[in-house]
Amino acid sequence: MHREKLTRARLLALVLLLLLAGCFSGGTRDDGRVTLRFQSLAWQEESVEANKELVAEWNATHPDVRVEYVQGSWDSVHDQLLTAFEGGEAPDIIHDASDDLADFAYGGYLADLTDLLPARLKADIPRRSWETTTFGDGVYGVPFLQEPRVLIANATWLERSGVRIPTPEQPWSWSEFRRITERLSGRGKYGVAWPLKEPVSATLNLSLSAGGQLFHRGADGKVTVRFEAADQVVPRTIHDQVGTDRSASPTTLGSGGSDTLPGFFGGRYAMVPLGFSYRQQIVQQAPEGFDWQVLPAPAGTGGLAQGVSPQTLSVAEDSPHKKEAAAFIDFLLRPKNMVRLALGDWMLPTGTQALKDPALHTARHGWATGTALAQHLRPAPAQTVRGYPEWKDKVATPALQEYYSGAIGLQDLRERLEEDGNLVLARYQR
């Protein structure tokens, strides 16, 4: 009897779960109205507001295709999406980043958007941006927001020091940057604080400015890691600033970007390399009267080039309403709407029309400096490399952390990135 009651309880629970899943999933109602779920990863207040406003505007003008806003989180999006895909419960429209798409695209979880997107949207976004979401012969996401890595500087400190202030037209070289940070340091203060809790993307993306590539694809399509001279410029600069010049704070190497801001505001660091969107936190948190400015990252033989992994919008392969989902993405990324999303996230739009908006060319808060860097942004080196997440977590992150802290040398770093790294990647390329 007890077992029978337990079985009935389990059946009832299962029915309730299925009913809830049916309520939560997108689909077509009895009245013919389509419901799409849009999972957004917007997290800053302005960004969430902009996304929700655009969803409301769509719903007000498209009574037959309603969009439900679903809040996601950057912290858990990969695992959450994988579970949703495998369970058949993925949202119709998926907000993610391009460097997270490769395995989902190759795994058949994302729809090929090649024939679903309108010509307007295809033409508005540059080819170099589309390359970040192209895997094989298909396009599996629309890249719409991107951010360069810039130097956030204490303007008063730099002015008093008399150093040359770089501009996008005349940036510092990596060697000049090292000399200047040494000049700005002393008496417990540092010219720069590198927040390298996640060291891989910063190192690889900035290395494009020095001509670095790291990942090399052969004629057979297979990728190998080669840590060559150009790839070593940026990590060697950081290593020497920390260990030789004492011009970079050793205590921030394990920190996130936000963790460096109190020391920056307190006058301990002259500069902090951060993503462009961190300006919003600085505006919110900086003490009254604190004067700061945005400077371009240093340049090398590759000029101001740096890698980016744009934020993306994709459509689930299992969605029964792919055309409607693509139409919503087109609406969301009309030039004026793309500007609203960019301003809300304090990032740059990928669209050429949106980039012309006067709001993105003001000197205030460094918008003009960031916008000037947009033409130099390139796909991140690991963009289409299968197995990159495992290589990053198991090989590159610990190796770079040990190198920057002085625990291993440059040759040890090279061996680990190449030998251990190629063993990992080989498993994904058989």
Structure keywords:
single chain, 430 residues, alpha/beta, seven-stranded mixed beta sheet, four-stranded mixed beta sheet, disordered N terminus
**Gyration radius, in Å:** 23 Å
Beta-strand residue fraction:
15-25%
Percent helix, as a range, is 40-55%
Report, as a whole number of angstroms, the end-to-end distance. 55 Å
Oligomeric composition of the shown chains = single chain
Structural class: alpha/beta
Q: What's the helix count?
A: 18
Could you list the spans in which at least 5 consecutive residues all have pLDDT below 50? 1-25
How many E-type strands?
A: 17
Mean pLDDT: 92
What summary fits the major beta sheet?
7 strands, mixed
The backbone outline, from C-alpha atoms, is: globular
Describe the structure.
This protein has helices at 2-24, 45-61, 77-86, 102-106, 119-124, 127-130, 155-161, 174-183, 199-207, 229-243, 261-265, 279-285, 322-332, 335-345, 352-355, 367-373, 388-405, 410-426; strands at 27-28, 34-40, 65-71, 93-97, 134-135, 138-139, 142-146, 149-154, 190-192, 215-217, 223-225, 269-275, 292-296, 306-308, 311-315, 348-349, 377-379. It is built from 18 helices and 17 strands. The strands form 5 sheets. Strands 1, 2, 3, 4, 7, 15 and 16 form a 7-stranded mixed β-sheet that branches. Strands 9-12-8-13 form a 4-stranded mixed β-sheet. By secondary structure, the chain is of the alpha/beta class. Strand 5 and strand 6 form a beta hairpin. The chain is 43% helix and 16% strand. The chain starts with a helix and ends with a helix. The chain is globular, with a radius of gyration of 23 Å.
